[in-house]
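Hey,

Quick one before I head out. I ran the complex with NAP overnight. Inputs first:
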Amino acid sequence: MSNPNLYATFTDRQKQTSPSLVHEDLTGKTVMITGANSGIGFEAAKHFATMNPARLIVVCRSMEKAQASITQIEAETGYKNAEPMALDLGDFNSISEFATQANKTLERLDILVENAAIATTEYVLTRDGWETMLQVNSLGPALHVILLLPIILRTAKQHSVVSRVVIVSSEVIFFANIRPEAIASPNILETLSSKEYCTAEVIGESRYTESKILNNMLVNKLTALLPLNIVPVALSPGFCISGLRRNIQGEAAERYKRMEDQIAYTSEEGSRLILHAALAGRNEEIRGTFLSYLKPHELPDHMLSEEGKRTEDKIWNEMLELFSQVDDRVRDIVVEYLK
Ligand SMILES: NC(=O)c1ccc[n+]([C@@H]2O[C@H](COP(=O)([O-])OP(=O)(O)OC[C@H]3O[C@@H](n4cnc5c(N)ncnc54)[C@H](OP(=O)(O)O)[C@@H]3O)[C@@H](O)[C@H]2O)c1
């Protein structure tokens, strides 16, 4: 957040926005949310529970965490139809197994919220060999959404409804772009993940931002390729107090602490912005947008430029190539739904 003007705009908009809670009757619908055991995701899951969905799929890194979250949701809301599912976004096998399980057990999926993410200042590779924030925040959610598309599309068609795919991004996409050396490299994803590229500064400052830019690129691609009865939407939950920055130390941690004291929403307030993206507004107005402080906001110039569009196309193709190697179903899904 080095640009003081952008930072001032961001803090002003946060201070001026008092998020109201959208409430809708979700009877008969199936809602799924990742990262539902903590912070904004847990609060959003509780709000969904008060709206009586037929099924609320509480997705966490382990069944134990999901079950503990459900126990608390039940205790606080009285809702009885929450179901646990385990998903480690840093492990492609886990995402594949999740999809297999979902295909067996889910008759429909009306609202999918990709909320889980991490922020860290350490360069750590996942078991699949990708830098952790790149995989957990960007690659994992993209593969997860793609593998669930057959269920989501079937839901919209068979039940004549519009399904929403909600991706939790961040205001940070306005603060920086992916670095030029990565954009110019032969394989952007491999460069973003490489030790040489991931200096302490990249991991400490840029990587989280890059991972969220990739979230918005995913929404752009889904919007361009999927039929109108699927509404992909990205949102920022604002700056919230949560466990997200627990691994961040030093000067950055102090800066965030000051921001928490001055402008932060609680996780519950932040979760209202997820509910807004999942439920509010007319579908045709929400589709493909980035909701920043509850309103569709134009994406940053670096994403809208010719180079930004080329980068988005290249990253998308690299992702599809990678995912096709990871899971055989991806090729068929691409041919059937994403051409
Ligand atoms: N807090 C903010 O100010 C802020 C601002 C803008 C955007 N966001 C976005 O809001 C979303 C929610 O973040 P939060 O602030 O609520 O943070 P949080 O409290 O740390 O919650 C993050 C959730 O993601 C889960 N997660 C982490 N790694 C995972 C993995 N490998 N596989 C599956 N799940 C994993 C966590 O599970 P564990 O409990 O097992 O770690 C946790 O449930 C994120 O997308 C974040 O980028 C937050």
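The mean pLDDT is 96.

Talk tomorrow,
K.
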